[in-house]
Design brief:
The chain is mostly loops and 236 residues long. It has one helix and nine strands. It folds into two domains: 110 residues, Ribonuclease Inhibitor (Leucine-rich repeat, LRR (right-handed beta-alpha superhelix), Alpha-Beta Horseshoe), CATH 3.80.10; 112 residues, Ribonuclease Inhibitor (Leucine-rich repeat, LRR (right-handed beta-alpha superhelix), Alpha-Beta Horseshoe), CATH 3.80.10. This is Si:dkey-90m5.4.
Length: 236
């Protein structure tokens, strides 16, 4: 039901399709979802709400279905209610990109043990809370590009040891702490382009085994205002 100018959807609309496995509602004008939205869809694994007008949602709105893929890209969400995701232990892909988020509550990511892809790009995030990724043991791809991140704590990624793709481009990062990537030995792609980096701590990338020829395939440091002195000889 995509691109149909749909503005509302009710529980009655979904009662007659109990075997539905994927629901695509992108490109509509939906402003709200009813409480218990998915309670009559016990087989639903994919819900795509891209490009609607959603801002606030009822508590536990996605409970009732074994969702694996949830796309909320391109809406008007400013604040996350952690209860939205607390029933989604099967979720593997969560896309919250292109919204208006300025923060992500720590509790919002504590009930997603199977999550592999988290997309928070193109929001207004200024920082990540300490321990934000600690309960995401299977996370492989993290998209944080196009935000307002200016600082990252040294242990931000310590528990996300399965990360293979990390996108941090188009932020406001001026410094990176030593040890930031210490535990990311499976990393294949790291994008730090278009930030405010002038130098790199000596040895910052030493534990990324790929730089020794094993796993990393792309390291992008372009479009940063590098200071051309001996401190960045490390990069060569």
């Amino acid at each position: 039901i995509e691109f149909t100018n749909l503005s509302t959807i009710s529980l009655e609309d979904l009662k007659g399709v109990p075997t539905l496995e994927a629901l695509h509602l992108s490109g509509n004008k939906i402003r709200a979802l009813p409480s218990g939205f998915l309670k009559d869809l016990p087989l639903l694994h994919t819900l795509d709400l891209t490009g609607n007008l959603l801002q606030d949602l009822p508590s536990e709105v996605f409970c009732g279905s074994p969702l694996q893929n949830l796309v909320l890209k391109g809406n008007r969400v400013m604040d996350i209610n952690p209860s939205w995701f607390q029933c989604l232990s099967n979720l593997t892909w969560l896309d919250l990109s292109d919204n208006r988020l300025s923060s992500v509550p720590l509790a919002a990511l504590q009930h997603l043990p199977r999550l592999k892809i988290l997309d928070l790009s193109n929001n207004k995030l200024e920082k990540l809370p300490d321990g934000a990724l600690n309960d995401l043991p299977e996370l492989e791809r993290l998209h944080l590009s196009g935000n307002k991140l200016s600082i990252l704590a040294p242990k931000t990624f310590d528990q996300a040891t399965n990360l293979t793709h990390l996108f941090l481009q188009d932020n406001l990062l001026k410094k990176l702490p030593y040890g930031l990537f210490l535990k990311l030995q499976h990393l294949e792609v790291l994008d730090l382009s278009t930030n405010g980096l002038t130098t790199i701590p000596l040895g910052l990338f030493d534990k990324l085994e790929g730089l020794g020829g094993l796993s990393i395939q792309r390291l992008d440091l372009a479009s940063n205002p590098w200071e051309c002195d001996c401190k960045i000889l490390y990069l060569w």
